[in-house]
Amino acid sequence: MSKIEDTVRIPPNRFEEPLNEVASEIINESYVGKIDKKMGLMVTVKDIEEIGVGKVIMGDGAAYHEVVFTALFFKPELHEIVEGEVIEVTEFGAFIRIGPMDGLVHVSQVTDDYINYDGKRGALIGKESKKTLEEGNRVRARIVALSLKGKSSKETKIGLTMRQPNLGRVEWIEKEKEKKSKKGKKGKKEKK
Questions:
Q1: Among 160, 82, 88, which residue's Cα sits nearest to residue 117?
Q2: Distance from first CA to last CA of the chain, Å, rounded?
Q3: Where are the beta strands (DSSP E) in 81-137?
Q4: Among 31-45, 87-101, 173-187, the least confident range
Q5: CA dist., res. 39 & res. 28, Å (int)
Q6: Please, which contacts does 102-108 make with residues 24 or more away whose CB atoms are closer than 8 Å?
């Protein structure tokens, strides 16, 4: 959450509406989806804390108000573990929606297995393990490359990996946990 000061232009046709609501709507239209290198991607205006008295500029007719507002930002960090949904699968990897941004898991970063692309099905399939990754799957990944250059989320680049323990498709992680749990129980029985 960050506090921001700015000037908001309220057009004359909106003077009858509640000032806070109009200011919030106009600020959201201006800022949401924009990227600030320090704060990340602005998601929404949380609260308008102060609105100054409006000033009219000759020849415009709109009122300009100084505002102080708090905004919610999303800023991914390098090496952060994120969860998301597969939104598209291509020959070269899978695009993952992580909050308001998308990241890419290159085919070389899906699993330790050799990966084949099934174009008809729109899936990545492990040659030995038969693990599949398709649109709609929930996954856990680590951010390994990050570029927040540009002004919007369309210009960002987030590289992801799922080739580490406890990463990958949620079902794969659960199966691994079950295997470890069963091995642990067998070891305890043999010791007795």
A1: 88
A2: 55
A3: 81-90, 93-98, 101-106, 115-118, 123-126, 132-134
A4: 173-187
A5: 16
A6: 102/153, 102/158, 103/76, 103/141, 103/143, 103/158, 103/159, 103/160, 104/157, 104/158, 104/159, 104/160, 105/139, 105/141, 105/160, 105/161, 105/162, 106/159
Q: Residue 63 above 90 pLDDT? A: yes
* Residue 169: its H or E element: strand 168-169
What CA–CA distances, in Å, run from 126 to 97, 129, 139, 164? Answer: 22, 5, 16, 16
Q: Check residue 40 and give its pLDDT.
A: 87
Question: What pLDDT is stored for residue 106 in this prediction?
Answer: 94
Beta bridge partners of 70: 3, 47
pTM listed for this prediction = 0.77
